[in-house]
Amino acid sequence: MKTPSISIMLSFGLALLLSSPRAGLAQTSQQEVEQTAELLGTLLNAGRVVVEQNQLVINDPGRGDKGFTPNVFEQSVLTEFAHQTHIDLKAPPVSLPSQTKDLLSLLLTASKEVVADAQFVINQRGIGYKNFIPATFGSQAARKFSKRSKVTIKQTALNARGLRNMPDPYEEAVLKRVASQPTLTSSIVEWVDGGRILRTMLPIYYSEDCLACHGNPKGILDISGYPREGAQAGDLAGAISIQIPVDHR
Predict the structure, then answer these.
(1) Could you tell me which residues come within 8 angstroms of residue 144 by beta carbon, excluding any fewer than 6 positions away?
(2) Is 72 helix (H, G, I), strand (E, B) or coil?
(3) Which terminal Cβ of the chain has fewer Cβ within 10 Å, N or C?
(4) First and final CA of the chain: distance in angstroms?
(5) Cα(168)–Cα(157) distance, integer angstroms
(6) With contact defined as beta carbons under 8 Å apart, do 36 and 74 qualify?
(7) What is the pTM assigned to this prediction?
(8) For the segment 128-169, what is each residue's pLDDT rounded down to a tens digit?
(9) Which residues neighbour 146 within 8 Å (Cβ) at sequence distance 6 or greater?
(10) Which of 136, 151, 174 is nearest to 47 (CA)?
């Protein structure tokens, strides 16, 4: 089953912060937190993209060892992340705050562990659909990361297929707002609770590949056993939700 891909655009301010150390020194701590949230969302998305790119191999019933190891996954994720952000995490720019580097490293480690945990399933011969798809990977990596950090990452949707991904009141309000607008490719960034918590939502939209499981006919069970949503390409599928408290250090 294909799942929604996500398109993320880095803001001009973020690009400026990364390219100019002097500009970075002038940024407020709030801007650094916003930068961290945007990059964390992009890194989780990079992992989703890599899993989707390898979906046919993962679901190949005639092949045992797929070669989709945690190290192979990591190299592909670093390449995809660099493609989306122009940042090489092997040699990150000096303007990137150390706390941001640490959190990105923590998310990458959690993501690799998810792939490592799934090796037995991925490499099973004689079984096609493995339920190791971008959405499953993203949810598991987000939970592992969130348990080890004060930062919370979550995949959510108005019609979430799992209780853990159900939106909270803030997420529901933002998703409804985004659903009523033309396709939004940038993240939504807001400070709540008197400026003590950053909330960032990165919209996810259905692509043509997603419709095999999420399209028509609506209500018919897909390969994973869930009713199809009757979605069309370009419809809002959900979002990656990130919460960062000011005291996340």
Answers:
(1) 110, 113, 114
(2) helix
(3) C
(4) 38
(5) 10
(6) no
(7) 0.85
(8) 999 999 999 999 999 999 999 999 999 999 988 888 899 999
(9) 152, 153, 154
(10) 136
